[in-house]
Specification:
Layout: H1 34-45, H2 47-82, H3 93-132, H4 134-139, H5 145-177, H6 179-185, H7 193-198, H8 202-221, H9 224-245, E1 253-257, E2 267-275, E3 280-282, E4 296-304, H10 309-338
Antiparallel strand pairs: 1-4, 2-3, 2-4
Helix pairs in contact: 1-5, 2-3, 2-5, 3-5, 3-8, 3-9, 5-8, 8-9, 8-10
Transmembrane segments: 50-69, 101-127, 148-170, 190-213, 225-245, 314-335
Region (Disordered): 1-33
Keywords: Membrane, Transmembrane, Transmembrane helix
Amino acid sequence: MNRLDDPTAAPAAKAGAPSTTRTTHPAAAPTPPPARGLIRAVLRLHQSALWFWGLLVGLVAAGLLWAAGPGYDAVWAVYVKSGCAEADYCTIGDAYTRYDLAVTLGSTVLTLAPALIGAWAGGALIARELESGTARLAWTQSVSPARWLATKLTVPAAVIVSGTVLLTLLNRLVWEREERLRHELGTRDWFAYSTFLGNGTLATAHALLALALGALAGLLLRRSLPALAAGVAGVAAVMVTLRTVRHQLWPVETLVSKTPDRGWTGELIDRGLVTTSGERVSDAACEEITCGRTDVAAHYADFHPSSHFWPLQLVESAIVLTLAAVLVWAAFHLLRRRTGGTV
């Protein structure tokens, strides 16, 4: 066979043609995009906090799932067997104690989580990196300060929201499942602080507010311990203030009756007397039902019924999220000023 017909044969070098040598270099490893690399860095740097949050959410979620299933079934079986429905007062023993512990733990974690998040965001997420110089090192590695802060807030926010939403949904599941038992025993009012916080949108809103407030505290103070303390104090102050004014966020309902007997159900805000002239006199400071007056025409009670749960939840959540957005804007504005307008 002719050599020219052989496709595997190497072509002959032409006489006098310079020989060329092809040098192959190993392909360079693909570098991850800056955003993805920064996300990995945040997760790696704060993996201890991530593990702690995941373990806490997992344990509480398991307890709430147990409470919504076999825990509640055991309590109700003991309640029916004991004949509590015919008694003025009775206890249902260890079954209810274990059930109550699991339910209380779920709402307590959601109540305390914002303070923990604010402390961590202020002390570890932001201030520690500014104090150690890690943040400035990142800004020299093709990562702008604005992108650095955006990632620092976005990644934890996604993790925190996932956990709080899961626990809130499980709290709601338990709340709906135990309605019959709650009615019989008269326990767990909807307006109790931890119950109100853990059964709606407010827990997630408070968690995001804590993240924003802690981040701003870290940028302002740039030292771990002061930022940690400021994060806890700021979150506590906001939560206490909102709790104090919560009953004013939605119009109350008023019940007027001829007798002072309780004819309302829900959260009592105020009660007192209505005189013959139409004046309302609160009986908060009175030792007698009539406050020593002879011109009493009726009795009134201002209260929030259970139907006000979602209006109060949504209004307060809107306030909290608006405040969180303002704090995030302030954090970016402060960072831009301190870095000379670098974006």
